[in-house]
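Thread: Newbie trying to understand structure tokens

Hi all, I'm a second-year student working on a class project, and my supervisor (Dr. K.) asked me to get a predicted structure for one chain before our next meeting. I've only ever worked with sequences, so writing a 3D structure as a token string is new to me. If someone could post the tokens and maybe explain what I'm looking at, I'd be very grateful. Here's the chain:
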Amino acid sequence: MTSALPFDDFRNLLANLPAADTAAETRVRTLFAKAEPGNSLGRIEDIAAWLAAWSGRAPPAVTRPLMAVFAGNHGVTRHGISPRPVAATANAVELCAAGGAAINQICIAYDLGLKVFDLALHIPTADITEEAALDERGCAATMAFGMEAIAGGTDLLCLGDLGVGNSTVAATLFAALFGGGGADWAGPGSGADAAMQARKADVVDAALAFHGGHLGDPLEALRRVGGREFAAIAGAILAARMQKIPVLLDGLAATAAAAVLHGVNPAALDHCLLASLSPEPAHARAAQRLGLRPLLDLGISHGEGAGAALAAGLVKAAALTSSGMAAAVRG
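---
Reply by user tm_fold:
Sure, no problem. This is what the structure looks like when written as tokens:
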């Protein structure tokens, strides 16, 4: 980072975000109006127009879609906030590497590239009830690492996460960004019973109390009560915006990471669609606060980005619908 403070470069980027290509969007909507009057294809038309607006291509195309999954571990899990052991994060990453996870199969089905990033799983972030999860330099470096997810080239970025305990971290971030306390944002996560949910709520409240007045700045909230996968996803979202790459968000953690950027600049998520809504009650509330309407609602809660990968198939279909109809109309 070249500035005096590690976050300064990100603040500058967020203050100077590229705008949508409204001309490309208009061309796609005009095409649909000629070929299928009356918005008969509903959200398929909206998806194609969004894709054109953020890729600059009309009709749009998806030829190099990428599913990026970021995995992190959290020191706050020592409070018994998850029914899964911390080792489950690494086990899930290993299953992806072996080709045996659900996300592998969905990527094969829809011809998506897949990258899974192990974010120092052997070094969990600090316990957010008594320390900042990351220092500013470490958080900024992790955001910068996330920005590299698109380095190989892609025209549709799908984002997901893995991380035992990260539903509690997401709840804390939502509370910091949107207000409320643990009882408002903590939910069952990966299967917490009533007693464990109460512990999760208590942990959220303890973290909010410990960090006190330092959470008003969204990036400061990210480093204090977030985690590595949250920081990396935020970086990936921002990099995609700077390169005019449309993004599909999936899962509670990715939505919380997106909320951080939205907190800095409400226009920061205009190039994003929410792929899927998890059963976690906080997810629907956060999505509403962010103005994100899910493409799918399949009850998928286990992460890995499965919802984003499934939604990528829908986006690819919308692009092909637009291009195929354009060819027919020209013919």
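A couple of things are worth pointing out once you decode it. The longest helix spans residues 306-330. Residues 185 and 285 are 9 Å apart (CA to CA). Feel free to ask follow-ups in this thread.
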